Structures are given as structure tokens and as C-alpha cells.
């Protein structure tokens, strides 16, 4: 699981040691297991938010773990051209390569540790597809796609695209050097990630070495979600067992605790976590298919606008629709 790494984490900035007598560690409110399914033209996903009430996810809507899969030649698949309105898609590539293109000319390729951040807002068409070389040769493919809601005031602004290279992420470690923390967006322990957000959020990919403990300071007014990409361990001071494909939704507090099991599976060198949190928007959500609005009437308008071509047109030099 490459993403972005360093040869020696001990050269990185370190999080301060938390005061164990005053820190309020968040308890685990809910622990769920992601069901497996298929997206687009048939690539495997884990639906990480399945079974979690929307008010515990706010401001997030949806999270898919794409893969991890080792494709044979001819097997890699993507999505066809499709619309979005009312939210942001954040695609984080851990292993492999994904091409993206949208109807406003945004896009490109992302690979190990890169993020493409598309603010769909008033409406856009886009496609996500494996590059021709990956289709020809096969290979590893592993990533995440997160949907971040937009507040009512930003749902109909102009679309925007951010191309975030993995090397731009803020890299830090814990006081004992037992983790590698990649801050993609927001701020963790005073270290800010490169992602520009309309809704205040934190996104971080953490590699936690076997037997190590992660004590992560977290904004008290944000929610806190920990998803396990690989490995196993415990979460919370109550030490709830957690493993790959499971999500822990936390209650209130100002820090998150995760412990990696001292012994991992032979093919898993470390525990991998995707940690999310944000300030809840607390607005009504009307969500159907590729649209996330506030009311059913706004959803109907989104479908009508798409059908009438108001969300954009597929560009002439478009990426191919892979099968």
C-alpha cells in the first residue's frame, strides 16, 4: 500500500504528547462492517457508510473503498460519463492509476497518494476510467471516493477542480514515531493539508505500525469517523476490536485513539486508517443517485436540468467509455 511514504518517519514533525488527565477521548458510538458491491461498470467496492445514520456522517454522504484488487489484463473497469450536483467528490488513489475528465475541461491522472477533488456544485458531467496501459497489462488498483456535502449557500456555485499531488500532503508522526500521518485536507495537530474545502473538514490517511498507538487531537465541534483500509487493532479507550472494512463512528470529545495489533497478517505490514471528520452542516438532505440537494423539488430540478443538457456536454476529446 504505497501512497506517499518516507524512509524515516523520525525526521517528520511530531504531534505533541496529549495530556492524559485532561484529554477527553472520544468513545465509539457505532461500529459497522462495510458490505461489498460493485460500482460503475463492475469494479469492486466496500460501502463504508452503510448502516450509519446520516446525522452521524454529516457533512459526509458516501464513502467507497475501491479495491484492493489485482486486475488481470483486460479486467480494469471504470464508470461511464455521469452527472453530479450539490456536493464534492474526493477521489484518493492509494495504489494504481485512475484517469478523470469532466465537462469543463478539468481532470488528469492520479496515482499513489494523489487526490482529485471535484466540486460539482451547480452541475457537471465526468468520467473515471483506468488508463489504457492498466487495461492492457492489469495490475493493482486501490483507492477511495468520498462524497462531501455542500451547504445550501454553496450548492449552486460554479464547479471547481483541484488536482492534489500526494507530495503536497502534510506529513507528520506521533511522539513515538509509530505512525505516518498524511493530512490531505483540514488541520491535524496544527498541520494543514492542501485540500481547499467549503465545509470545514479533516481528511487523513494513517499508517500505524504493529503495536503502535495513535492519539490524534481532534476538533471538538467536528464529528469523527475512522475507517480501516487494512490490518486490525482496537479503537477508542474502550479498545473495541476493529479490522479491515470496518468503520467506527465516535461520540463527542477532543481526541481519537486507535491501537494497531502487535501481530498483523503476514501480507499486511501495518494497520492502515482513513480518518475523517467535519463540522456538521445540519441542513435537510435530499439525496438520490448522483445528486445531493436540500429538497425533493431541487432533486427533480437537477434531473430535469441533466436531461435538458444544462449540466454540461461531453467534450469532443473525451476519455473512452471502457467496458
UniProtKB/TrEMBL annotation:
Annotated binding of Fe cation, by residue: 82, 84, 126, 128
Cofactor: Fe cation
Domain Pirin C-terminal: 204-311
Co-factor remark: Binds 1 Fe cation per subunit.
Domain of life of the source: Bacteria
Family (UniProt): Belongs to the pirin family.
Protein name: Pirin
Species of the source: Winogradskya consettensis
Amino acid at each position: 500500500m504505497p501512497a506517499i511514504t518516507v524512509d524515516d518517519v523520525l525526521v517528520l514533525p511530531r504531534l505533541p504528547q496529549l495530556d492524559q488527565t485532561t484529554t477527553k477521548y472520544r468513545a465509539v458510538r457505532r461500529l459497522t462492517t462495510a458490505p461489498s458491491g460493485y460500482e460503475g461498470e463492475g469494479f469492486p467496492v466496500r460501502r463504508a457508510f452503510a448502516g450509519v445514520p446520516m446525522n452521524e456522517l454529516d457533512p459526509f454522504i458516501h464513502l467507497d473503498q475501491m479495491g484492493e484488487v489485482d486486475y488481470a489484463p483486460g479486467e480494469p473497469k471504470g464508470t461511464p460519463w455521469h452527472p453530479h450536483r450539490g456536493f464534492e467528490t474526493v477521489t484518493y488513489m492509494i495504489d494504481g492509476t485512475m484517469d478523470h475528465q469532466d465537462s469543463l475541461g478539468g481532470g488528469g491522472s492520479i496515482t499513489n497518494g494523489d487526490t482529485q477533488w471535484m466540486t460539482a456544485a451547480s452541475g457537471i458531467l465526468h468520467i473515471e476510467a483506468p488508463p489504457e496501459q492498466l487495461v492492457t497489462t492489469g495490475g493493482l488498483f486501490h483507492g477511495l471516493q468520498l462524497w462531501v456535502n455542500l451547504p445550501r449557500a454553496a450548492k449552486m456555485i460554479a464547479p471547481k477542480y483541484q488536482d492534489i499531488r500526494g507530495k503536497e500532503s502534510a506529513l507528520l508522526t506521533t511522539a513515538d514515531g509509530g505512525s505516518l500521518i498524511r493530512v490531505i485536507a483540514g488541520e491535524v495537530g496544527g498541520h494543514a493539508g492542501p485540500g481547499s474545502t467549503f465545509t470545514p473538514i479533516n481528511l487523513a490517511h494513517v499508517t500505524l505500525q504493529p503495536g503502535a498507538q495513535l492519539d490524534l487531537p481532534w476538533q471538538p465541534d467536528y464529528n469523527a469517523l475512522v475507517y480501516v483500509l487494512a490490518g486490525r487493532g482496537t479503537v477508542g479507550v474502550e479498545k473495541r476490536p476493529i479490522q479491515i472494512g470496518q468503520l467506527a463512528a465516535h461520540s463527542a470529545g477532543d481526541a481519537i485513539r486507535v491501537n494497531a495489533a502487535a501481530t498483523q497478517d503476514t501480507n499486511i505490514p501495518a494497520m492502515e486508517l482513513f480518518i475523517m471528520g467535519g463540522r456538521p452542516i445540519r441542513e435537510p438532505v435530499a439525496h438520490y443517485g448522483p445528486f445531493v440537494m436540500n429538497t425533493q423539488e431541487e432533486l427533480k430540478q437537477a434531473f430535469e436540468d441533466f436531461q435538458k443538457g444544462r449540466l454540461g456536454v461531453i467534450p469532443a476529446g473525451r476519455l473512452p467509455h471502457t467496458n
